[in-house]
Specification:
This protein has 341 residues and is an alpha/beta fold. The chain is built from 15 helices and 11 strands. The longest helix has 19 residues.
Length: 341
């Protein structure tokens, strides 16, 4: 007698359309994760071109917002093209988080997201980001205060727990849901685990399939390509996926994942012409938003990812990294086309 493998996380009662309150995201949304120094408006623009269903600003310091700090306020910028979009805030002080949420609400995003997942030491040391996972009662109290302070839907992004001895996400999700949040995204690692440790989706699946949970549950961690996306979708019953590192130099990933989920066919990778075209659009948006010099300089962290894997590319990469001129970059791109054409 053969044995059939049963997916204990399969959910036959899926939503027809996933909603965060009145925001419709489709049957299985693919979200762009908020990432500091990555998901600025120029990069979000090209991700939206390829079908990102929901995007978020870079995370914004609550203290910076209420002090009206220029860097924090600048992060509130977004275009209508990017909707639906959430503004993500972080902080350790409840009163400051309430004021920051109200400040962010005035920018008229579609929702407010609270960052309970950032593992960066200087953030955690203050009890913000994933640092608050050491104080779950405060996490609940802060979330409840923010939910009550704004009219927009509030969501959160968090982790499995602080460390391996405190993977408390199933209980945390229930308690946080009771504060009135409208969705939760869970990263499949603890605060102390590094990215080289494979994400553990088992507990994410347990949260989603907890009969007490009635809000959308999105999974995050190691969604690097269409194949991994399908694996997580099929095995853990989540309502959607959030992509982080998999999008570096790869805004096409949203198109590729959706095509694979619909057809079980892998799209061919984008050719050089498309890579140059899309990265040039991001460059143009970056210059418009930041000015030429800063816009060109801050694109440097993206070039290596856009052209990863091309043989003999190092001389071009060096020139790209050295220039501060948009026109010079256009000239280099024409040389690249001629070289590889």
């Amino acid at each position: 007698m053969s044995l059939c493998k049963i997916n204990i996380f399969a959910n036959p009662f899926r939503y027809t359309v996933i909603r965060i309150e009145n925001i419709e995201l489709g049957e299985f949304p693919i979200l762009l994760a908020p990432m500091e120094d990555v998901t600025d408006p120029p990069f979000r623009y090209v991700c939206k071109m390829f079908g990102a269903d929901m995007m978020y600003t870079e995370f914004i310091s609550s203290e910076g917002l209420i002090r009206d700090a220029a860097k924090s306020v600048k992060k509130l910028d977004f275009s209508e093209f990017e909707r639906p979009i959430g503004i993500q805030i972080f902080g350790h002080d409840i009163d400051s988080m309430v004021k920051a949420a109200q400040y962010a609400e005035r920018a008229n995003p579609d929702l407010i997201d609270i960052n309970y997942g950032c593992p960066v030491r200087k953030v955690v040391a203050k009890g913000a980001g994933s640092g608050i996972l050491n104080d779950i009662p405060k996490m609940v109290k802060m979330t409840e205060a923010v939910v009550k302070a704004v009219k927009l839907p509030v969501t959160i992004k968090t982790r499995l727990g602080y460390d391996d001895e405190h993977k408390e996400i199933v209980d945390i999700a229930e308690r946080i849901q009771d504060t009135g949040i409208k969705a939760i995204t869970i990263h499949g690692r603890t605060r102390t685990q590094r990215p080289r440790i494979p994400a553990d989706w088992t507990l994410i699946g347990e949260v989603k399939n907890n009969p007490r949970m009635h809000i959308p549950v999105f999974g995050n961690g190691d969604v690097m390509d269409p194949v991994s996306a399908k694996k997580f979708k099929d095995n853990y019953g989540v309502d959607g996926l959030m992509v982080a590192r998999g999008v570096y130099g790869n805004p096409w990933i949203f198109r590729e994942i959706k095509h694979y989920l619909e057809t079980a066919e892998l799209l061919p990778p984008p050719d050089l012409e498309e890579r140059i075209h899309i990265s040039s659009i991001q460059l143009q948006k970056s210059v418009l938003w930041k000015g030429e010099r800063r816009g060109v300089l801050e694109m440097r962290k993206h070039w290596g990812d856009y052209f990863r894997g091309y043989p003999h590319f190092k001389p071009f990469r060096i020139r790209i990294m050295q220039t501060e001129s948009q026109d010079e970059l256009k000239s280099i791109f024409e040389e690249i086309k001629a070289y590889y054409g």
